[in-house]
Amino acid sequence: MVTTYDSYRLLTRNLDRTLKLKASEPTVALETKHYLETIPKIKSIDDFIKNTRVFNYAMKAFGLEEMAYAKAYMRKVLTEGITDSKSFANRLNDERFTAFAKAFDFDSYGALTTSRTAAKQDVVDKYVRQTLEVDAGAENEGVRLALYFKREAPNVSSAYGLMADAALWKVVKTVYGFPAEMGNADIDKQAAAVKKRLDIASLKDPVKLDRLIQRFTARWDMDQAATSPTLALFNRGYSVGSGVAMSLLSLKYGG
User: Fold this and answer.
1) C or N: which end of the chain has fewer Cβ atoms within 10 Å?
2) Cα Rg of the chain, angstroms
């Protein structure tokens, strides 16, 4: 049986090569070619949003594909920009929107916005990585979460930052077995529970980050197996308690 960690390692062992292979896939390559040829010709927010194919490409690059229909919403994000701390994007408390507004900063650069690397190759790189994660998630959601955690966790500076990102928070909750009911607790108490178990600064250490991802994928597989009909039948005859299982995981991964 191929574990979640095995699949994750297969993709990340040589991530640059993996991304190049993903970028060369016919559909990805075709969309990227069209984007790079078209984006420099777009000179305004209205032109950008009206070009559905280009706009959707950019939205997917920033993990906002599900919001591509909300064009009035995104127009407000772009129109107000990010310079003002009270702008719409900054008030959304979601880094995806501020990153999008920063890449397509028409507020600051006007017609020159789309000639910048931030709006061209940087977006392409994000699109390819996002496509890789989405495709991996179609086969195993745990792999997608692990890939996302590897990419985004090092950018987090506080427990609150982890909790504000649904995907990062799902990984943390899985690793430490935090119950769903924890969401009903005071936000400061939730943050304290995270800090008690996890040194946020360690997320910037590649070795420690990988250890945490190992723990996540092991727990993920265990949780998925626990809901498997086949394993449920097996467990009628023999069952390992969750406390014992987690002790074994701690011994294996040093946590």
Assistant:
1) N
2) 21
